[in-house]
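ok here's Protein FAR1-RELATED SEQUENCE 5-like, seq below lol
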Amino acid sequence: MYAKASKTNGIQGQNSVPNSEGYFAEAESLEETENVPSLQILDSRTEESTEKSRQFEYDGLNFQNMSIADLVEREFAKFEEAERFYCNYALAIGFSIRRSRLRRSEGGVVMGRQWVCSKEGSRSKKWMNRYDMVRTPRKETRENCHATFAVKYCPKRDAYIVTKFVKEHSHRLTNSREVPFLRSHRYVTESNIAQSMSMRKASIKTNRTYDYMVDQASGYMKVGFTSKDLYNMIDFERRQVVLDGDAQAAISYMNAKAIADLECFCMFSVDEENRLANLFWRDSQSLHDYYCFGDVVIFDSTYKTNVLKTFLTSIKDKKPVSIVMDRDEAMRVAIDEVFPDAHHRLCTWHIMRNVNTNVNNPEIVREFSYCVHGGLTPVAFEQYWQQMIDTYDLKGDWIEMMYRKRKRWAEAYCSG
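and the structure came out like this:
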């Protein structure tokens, strides 16, 4: 399951001393050396006991006994090597890691990277105190752990230098029998996927394939992933095949339609991997209908600015008088840019659905509905709204936000 990882460049800083929190100060002078430490990992399948399989070393230092001073000014040629090192350290110690902060330069070069324990931080309170949740909340897994590992890019050395290493954990570390099943240590390789896909063609079910892989690896602890991981990866691969096939079929259909309909309009774009990213089309009937009845346009999903511009091109630059949509800030900004003179209103169906979600009180919903649809004047609306607020003691960000946007959804302000 494990093999010797790629080598990393190492320099011991002469004037750099770690502080109590695991931060490393900048070294004023550095002595270059050609000694290159390597990350040595024992193959767990060659060990007789599970405990021996966790005796991992880095540059002659045992992970179990590694201290902050051992990593002062260590170098990694790439930040991916630093991630591999910390992942192997976590595997030896008994915890799972996740990526945290990432800092890039204007040119896209990674200038700093930080990893933390998977139990770092705590769940946001807004997800703990919700009364409209249908499903039972997942069990809390965060325990405010402060274990951290960080590197930054040093242009002079053209390498990533360790800047922070906090090894203390606020929770019990995982034992040797559990550690292979932690998320950051589970990985389905391309060969595993290829083998599973081939066995599917031979009518062998995925669960049988997984049992075969477990037998090959001599146990569940050594296979490297769970059956659920294998199912997920196979499902992902199948979806990719279907998506690619659907994209080609859609473009072929548009080409055939353009031959039969001279006013058919279609534009599409591809991503960096030459896969279909966006597709916009309309036929001649849609164009004629828009010119006859296109004063009001309703959008029921989020469109980026470039898509709205494509829509405007397809209808030969005839701008709509009014636009109705759901409450989406990105969409509002795009509409203001592409259709600055159009009347922008919010869809009352979406408004009422959000009322039920955020208020969850039948009496307040009825009152709010009257504010939306009632034949009120602006003055009467203000009086009725304030009465509703006082009667039910309504407070909160959502209520305040809806009041600020009242001119986009209340009939009192939309007349005419």
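fwiw The radius of gyration is 30 Å. kinda neat tbh
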